[in-house]
Amino acid sequence: MISTTADLDRFFSGLLGGKLLSPGTLSAMRETVATGTIFDYGLGLQRFTLPCGETATGHGGRLLGYLTYSLCTDDGRVATLGYSPYLRGATEAEVAGILSAALCS
């Protein structure tokens, strides 16, 4: 996928704000199960519970040296994190810390 951070923020704001899918479909996507990592996973969505207690929903991905997470909180705050190039590999704690700095009140 090729996109800009502004487009990803706009997409997740629209998706999670109920502007793109029916309420039932979005509700089904938001149902998640534990994965044993820093996020729970549902039907195409990841839910992060940040160290500050806030939750954020979105999706991440990595490919060929790049890592991206694009997330939205329930009150509409958005953040897109991109590592490029992703050579060393960030720890889960580092990713959670960066997302917390961006999304925690």
Brief digest:
With 105 residues, this protein is of the alpha+beta class. Helices cover 30% and strands 30% of the residues. The chain has three helices and six strands, in the order H-H-E-E-E-E-E-E-H.
Can you describe this structure?
This protein is an alpha+beta fold. It has one domain (5-103). 30% of the residues lie in helices and 30% in strands. The protein is built from three helices and six strands; from the N terminus they run ααββββββα. It has helices spanning 5-16, 23-30, 92-103; strands spanning 33-34, 39-41, 46-49, 55-63, 66-73, 78-83. The model has no long low-confidence stretch (mean pLDDT 88).
Question: How are the SSEs placed, and which strands pair?
Answer:
Elements: H1 5-16, H2 23-30, E1 33-34, E2 39-41, E3 46-49, E4 55-63, E5 66-73, E6 78-83, H3 92-103
Antiparallel strand pairs: 1-2, 2-3, 3-4, 4-5, 5-6
The percent range for strand residues is 25-35%
Radius of gyration, whole Å: 13 Å
Number of domains: 1
Helix content: 25-40%
Secondary structure class reads alpha+beta
Sequence of secondary-structure elements? HHEEEEEEH
Supply the number of helical segments.
Answer: 3
Biggest beta-sheet profile: 6 strands, antiparallel
In the predicted model, the low-confidence regions spanning at least 5 consecutive residues are none
Total number of strands: 6
Task: Kindly report how far apart the N and C termini lie.
Answer: 30 Å
Mean pLDDT: 88
Choose one word for the global shape.
globular
Strand order of the largest sheet: 1-2-3-4-5-6
Give keywords.
globular; 105 residues
